[in-house]
Amino acid sequence: MARARSVLIVGGGSAGNTLAILLANSGVSVDLVESRPDWGVLGSGILLHGNALRVLRDAGVWPQVRDAGFAFDSIGILAPDGTVVAEQPDLHSGGSDLPSTLGILRPALQQILIDAVRASGTRVRLGCTVEKLDDQGEGAEAVFSDGTASSYDLVVGCDGIYSTTRESIGVTDRPEPTGMGVWRTLVPRPAELVRTDLAYGGPCHIAGYSPMSDDLAYALLVVDWHERDEADPADYAERMCAESATYGGLWPTIRAHITDPAAVHYTAFHRLLVEGPWHRGRIALAGDAVHVCPPTLAQGVAMSLEDAAVVAELLSSRDVWDDALLTEYRDRRMPRVQTVVDGSMQLAQWLREGNRQAAPALIARILTALIERP
Ligand SMILES: Cc1cc2nc3c(=O)[nH]c(=O)nc-3n(C[C@H](O)[C@H](O)[C@H](O)COP(=O)(O)OP(=O)(O)OC[C@H]3O[C@@H](n4cnc5c(N)ncnc54)[C@H](O)[C@@H]3O)c2cc1C
Question: Residue 31: beta bridge partners?
Fold first, then answer.
């Protein structure tokens, strides 16, 4: 019997974990190294569109994701005073048998993926990084921070926006700040909050809230990024209350719960799109390691999961893992990822210019394009 082919995945976030599950389930021998000893995630909640849910279903975790999250099929557009201006049905980018959108706590999604990675037989090393990667033509050798070394048929760097795998293989593209950022926090879910409601404009570019579970909701304010605002996390609750002070709707209820500065996050938006090859020899990249966009379309996780799905499909269906396969992976992903990165940047730009009219049509066009499988 032929030996199982082997893959090393660097980074256990949404891309790395999903790739591990899909590959291990198709009979590939998978090692995964994750630098965080607790395998945890930072941040509060995320929105997943149908095209992300479709990959999670293929990975076998949809029932757990559905039960942990809060699904909905429309979006509310509000005036800054909270008046509902429009209620739009959201496109089902993962097909009509999945919700158009699901809010979920980041730690909940991570735990679901961790449980599935463990169940897949993937060998996991936590608190471990790759010190050196050596492409050897037919495979690659990795030297780990614990002093051990192993050879693999393929290495995939899923190590996020500041990927050291990207750096180690000589890809020189780096994430650039976009000049915008977001205040975010979790609050108890008001009973009437059952979908994303966004106000474009007012003192912030966007003021919005989304359900994340039966109990919790996520409130966000998109603003121009000022480094000085990062300076004093002790002020974060006060700042988020001040920035949202003139917004109506559910904001007064939400603001009453924004009291703990440690529960408020202030995060800058970045852009990255590696336009050249996404691999060197037998070392490839996926997820935020090769593309990052401001979350104006909430498609970052979805694009990372789709990368994992395409890599897994190609590796599990081909006898030969070579340069042509990895080029095909990048060429297949690029038009879709570029559409999302450019669209996210365009939306951010329009928000900064105060142009709110064009956004719904662009969002609908992009989500429609994503209905087709990647
Ligand atoms: C403010 C904000 C809001 C967002 N909201 C949304 C949203 O609503 N919906 C959405 O779809 N997307 C959203 N995104 C984007 C989304 O968070 C990312 O696109 C997604 O997390 C990328 O997944 P990834 O697995 O590629 O990278 P990551 O999630 O960053 O995972 C990388 C993993 O690699 C590990 N790692 C790093 N370096 C090493 C190393 N050297 N060795 C081993 N392990 C390493 C890290 O610890 C981490 O576990 C948002 C992003 C931001 C900044």
Answer: 8, 123
Q: How far apart are CA 363 and CA 344, in angstroms?
A: 9
Q: How far is the CA of 113 from the centre of ligand 1 (A)?
A: 14
Instruction: Write out pLDDT tens, residues 300-325.
Output: 999 999 999 999 999 999 999 999 99
Name the band, by pLDDT with cuts 50, 70 and 90, for residue 1: very low
268-286 burial by CB neighbour count: b if 16+ within 10 A, else e? bbbbbbbeebbbbbbbbbb
- Residue 355, number of CB atoms within 10 A of its CB: 12
- Nearest partner of 113 among 253, 228, 16, 246, judged by Cα: 16
Largest CA distance in the chain: 68
Beta-ladder partners of 98:
none
Probe target for ligand 1 pocket from 304, 337, 344, with the most ligand atoms within 8 Å of CB: 304
The two tokens of residue 51 are 């095209």
Atom of ligand 1 nearest to the CA of 161: 30
> What atom in ligand 1 is closest to the CA of residue 288?
26
Q: In the chain, what are the domains?
A: 6-70+107-175+271-369 (3.50.50.60), 178-270 (3.30.9.30)
φ and ψ at residue 294, rounded to 5 degrees: -60, 145
DSSP state at residue 83: -
Gap between the Cα atoms of 128 and 32, Å rounded:
9
